[in-house]
Amino acid sequence: MPIRRKMPVFHPPSCRGGLIVTASGRSTLEIPHVPHFRELCGINDEQLRFIEKIFDVGITARNDSIQIAGSDADTRRVSRLLQELDELLSRGVAVSPDDTKFITQYFHENRGETSVASIFSDDVRVQTARKIVTPRSIAQRSYVHSLVNTDIVIAIGPAGTGKTYLAMAVAVSDLLKKKIARIVLTRPAVEAGESLGFLPGNLDEKITPYLRPLYDAIYDLLGPDKLRTMTEQGQIEVAPLAYMRGRTLNDSFIILDEAQNCTSEQMKMFLTRLGTNSKAAITGDVTQIDLPRGKPSGLVEARNILTGIEGIDIVYFSKRDVVRHSLVAKIINAYEMYDESLGKGQ
Q1: Helix 163-176 vs helix 203-222: angle between axes, to the nearest 10 degrees?
Q2: Residue 147 parent element (H or E)
Q3: pLDDT at res. 245
Q4: From 22, 41, 133, 174, which residue has the greatest number of CB atoms within 10 Å?
Q5: What are the extents of the domains in the chain?
């Protein structure tokens, strides 16, 4: 429903200073601070229009008031969303238009007692053996929040957004706090342009290149001595996905990396390995699938099948969340534009 900025807004008595539910399916939020009001609306009401579309409500903005109309449930949630966004602005948190869109999507998809403030709270900082890891974007904050509070988290997005590294950081933190007994790191043995059979050496030598990125990340978080000790004690295990079949993993934090290269059968097998007191993080980039042509990606299938299941969070990253070299985001954008020009968009 379109925004109607010039229509008169109903103001009930004493509604200044917060949210007032005026009638069934109708509420008014007053934002006396003009800069906050403008930021919530966005240029040409772009942000309010986006919220309307996501929640299927009608929003009228005029002067310092925002009025929401729709179903009782959606009206309450949109009112709460706008209140929490206003609270973030009051706390001095910089919230970009892209951030507002991300928060709106997250708020809509997580219909429990989701709090925007919780995504920005200090408890999303992760203490590991060598450093404190702090999320650098709203998507990363929500991802860490999900990793801490949810048993299965699926992270989808381009390279360099911290999907695997942040999951590793939370896993290391849980291991050091003795919340779990071990970390299991795995990925499918599929790589662009090569297959295991063509690589030199025995099986272990063939597998090592595929697991090296996982070793690199956990080495950075633990340091060489702690990593060596924990590996020797069986607290950290790194193995190809094929080695997971037939196992039940209890008291574990399992990270499946490069999940876009799992087949449907492999993904189902992995998800059913989860035992008691265990968590799983599944990371991948659906634009970088190296499976044979015509073979569906288990990550894409899981994304479609598991959406909406309580206890499973799906977090999406975009190129604005890239935390590698500043050129990486530009490279990703250039390739996206090229693929679109060829009609290859996912």
Answers
A1: 70
A2: helix 138-149
A3: 87
A4: 133
A5: 19-117, 123-341
